[in-house]
Here is the input.
Amino acid sequence: MAKASRSDRSAPGRVVIVVSRFNEGVTRRLLEGAMTALAEAGYDEAHVDVVWVPGAWELPVSVLRVLDTKVYRAAVALGAVIRGETPHFDYICAEAARGLGDIARATGIPVGFGVLTCDTLAHAMARAGGEAGNKGAEAAAAAIETANTLDQVDRRAST
Here is the structure.
């Protein structure tokens, strides 16, 4: 996949949030946190698109397709994978993380990683707006900060 230059994006102020419906009680809270963080960074809802996918496994392919549109300056991937009795958890978590990292490197567009990988639902809820904060908000803030840093690098390189 070709790396997109910052200048060929038609709407550099747009952000996309791709959210897993699996464990939706958790992911909706992550989404609320991400939306709050983006609002605090100056993004109104008109500049943020939300795309729902079935689960964490589908996040990488969905983020890739959305970023291939060249419309977004950053993406945020949100999901919650809770350990069960089989190794399924390990495969899903590893592939979601690897896939999203690969996409960020291949496209040059920041992808905030807000996929919880928890042992219990209680741990997930604590990280989705509970006593451990909101990892959705943290992922959105990290994506925007990285996009801003990349913009600074691009400005310096063009002078």
Summary: The longest strand covers residues 72-82. Confidence is low (pLDDT under 50) at residues 1-12.
